[in-house]
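BUG: 3D viewer hangs when loading the predicted structure for this chain

Environment: internal workstation, default settings.
Expected: structure renders.
Actual: progress bar stalls at 90%.

Input used:
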Amino acid sequence: MALGKQAKTLTDKQVNAVLNHLTNTRDPIRNKVIFLLSVKAGMRAKEIASLEWSMITDAEGKLTDRISLTDSASKGRSGRVIPINSDLGKALSVLMTSKVPAGRVIKSQRSKSVSAQTIINMFRGWYADLGMNGCSSHSGRRTFITKAARKVSYVGGSIRDVQVLAGHSSLAMTQRYIEADSAAQAKLVNLI
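Structure tokens produced before the viewer hung:
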């Protein structure tokens, strides 16, 4: 993807604006989960649409602390295990109590599933409603990967951990997702 064609990353203020906006949508609980799966788990539209309750629940049907994303639910062979962020876990728990926790996690009023294109269109609509030009269904994923890359050293990890969470086959692809930070660059140069 060319530099100018990448989806924009989201600031914390923009994330909060989207979450606030979603409270006024037709299915606010489901829509919050969709958004958080993108921004807090780095999932693609296809992965969000393909996510099944069995990937996030144990044998007793209780919510687990991780998403066990299968290859078939992902892009190619990029199935992976993603620890569930606490905000996402709370939203999934609320969704679980309001829906039948079987089959797909994300459903429409008329169907037991939604397509990846439906997820893409939902993001497009939400961002358009908020005037967030340049944002797309991939903005949450880029935001997740960028934030993870900036914070991974705090937990003793490496960029390889970010690559695994993103489901990328190469570090080069993961690096393409990471947004540069000019303020951090200036601080870094001043340390030299």
